[in-house]
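Memo to structure team: turn this sequence into structure tokens by end of day. - J.P.
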Amino acid sequence: MKRIYKYSTNLIKSNFPFINSVLNDSQKGLVFKDKFDNYFVVNKAGFSQLIINNLNHFDVLDFANFILKSDEIPAYIHMYDVKDSFIQSFRRGEHFNLRIRERVQLRYMEKSINKEFINSLPLDYIIEEINQNNINELDLFGLKIDSKFWESKEAFLSDGYGVVIRCSNGKPVCICYSACFSNEMSEIDVYTMEKYRGNGLARVATNYYIKMSINKNVYPNWDCFTDNTPSLYTAKKCGFTEIRTYTFLSIYNKTK
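Reply from structure team:
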């Protein structure tokens, strides 16, 4: 495979917003292609997907060797929706450390929200949209929004969106924001400070985020590990519909 800079999105189809954010140039990443129109896309955060258009002309062992030797691919990546036969190609030799897990993708498909959660914010707590005045305070969460996903805080303010909840002393304690946005879908990320969990703040923040998404004609995408019970509970409680369960492969290249 070779890196390419010009490509047709008609040939590269993905159901994952992080991958589409690279293809639509809303976030940085890498796109590789072989001569049979098979593609490998890597988002700047390390999320990747192998998109096979011609399985008869694709060698999984050659692909594993490509991952091993490429200087452009990060040492640690995560691959969406990986087939078992592809995983076996990475087991050969001792070059990779692998972690195989199951994830579930959900999406909010409705055009309205459950107002019950909008009105259930604890007394003396406030919620506000992320904006120029409060974005620097979000560093408290340690999520590195402006470097892990977006190119800068300005890029997030331009193309992303989200909300933050403050407790009674004004401290930000819960955040729900778009880790990426592409093709009328946004990848939702929600986080509550440990001390403040169990109060339903994630549900409130998520529903405000859903409301913002509806106003923008955007479908929020929720993606988590199948054994992350609290995350799944929040998503389903907020009305997200399960789309698919898939194999998620994390690969560490020990030679780098």
